[in-house]
Amino acid sequence: MYTFEQYLKLSREAKSLATRYGCACLKAHLGALSAYEMKKKLLTDTEKMNYGSDWLNKSSRFYNKKEQGEPIVRRHVVDDIDRRVKPPFSLMSLLCHPLWQLTDNPNPTQNSINEALMNLPHRYVQMLFKEDGDNGLVRRQKLSRQAIWKINASTDIHALTCLIAFCLESLSENDRLDINQLFAVKYLIKLSIISTFSSVAEDFYIFLNQRFFETIAAQKNCTPPDTWPYRAHDGLRIMIPMRIFNHYHVNIAGTINAYIQLYQKAIQRGLVNKTDEDEKAFYNFICHTEIQQLTDILYQDAPIPDNFSDLKHLLFERTLNRK
């Protein structure tokens, strides 16, 4: 894990995102609805008896400021919070997560990318690296299908870090449609709906593209599609991002809303149930090049398939007929 000192050395924007996300995770872990409740839930029973509500109100302003992105500058404050919450939650690990170090470096090298990946949890390091002859670690030449499936099926910022790292490694290849970038932006959208990362997702996407703007602009051989046109059932037209690093400014809020509306419609049509597993499965099923046909099918009056396999076949037929 990176150190608290390295968190402090992050850019102002990255430090703000890390702090906001860390506070959002703490708030969710405590089951708190406000900064006041966060502070109150962290107090011991004795402290609650000794301190009045007026002190609690003033003291909770610390968490208000951190929720807005003000960095935490004293390590002992983080240590005290982690001592009160106890494992497996760790605010320190969230503030010092490799995601922030990876994305705050506008000129990444293979060494800096590997360093970030080696600071991920052990299960991810095992998937990405193997031991060399000197008991060191070297990147695997190729990930197994199972490893790729595990990364894309997960819902955490460890996997997001992996996917962004893959994108940074492939930026110089100038592929017309970089599959790594498509996987990464889809994963970010999924994560922003079903996890605490929703607290920073839209700003993180903007930060990411600002941080790597010069690198993206230098890709002169890279051609569209960076975006995909989409018309919602109510007639609203937006552009769906096809890359996590985008030549054009695309606000992902519209795409997030489209995902949510499609999932709700899929529930109404009986394709999926309202469960966490079905929601994740549906978002994983969405393909950006087929999202228009998927929308048309879900909102048609005629019966629709009741499983993903038959629906995929129907989507393929619709796409083929359009060509």
What does this structure look like?
There is one protein chain. The protein is mostly helical. The protein folds into three domains: 4-95, no CATH class; 98-217, no CATH class; 227-322, no CATH class. Helices cover 60% and strands 5% of the residues. The chain is built from 20 helices and four strands. The protein has a two-stranded antiparallel ribbon. The chain has a two-stranded antiparallel sheet with strand order 3-4. Strand 1 and strand 2 (137-139) form a beta hairpin. Helix 10 packs antiparallel against helix 13 (157-170) and helix 14 (179-194) runs antiparallel to helix 18. It starts with a helix and ends with a helix. The mean pLDDT is 91.
Summarize the structure.
The chain is mostly helical and 323 residues long.
Number of domains: 3
Number of helices: 20
What kind of sheet is the major sheet?
2 strands, antiparallel
- State the low-pLDDT regions, or none: none
Helix residue percentage: 55-70%
Task: Count the E strands.
Answer: 4
- Strands side by side in the biggest sheet: 1-2
Radius of gyration: 22 Å
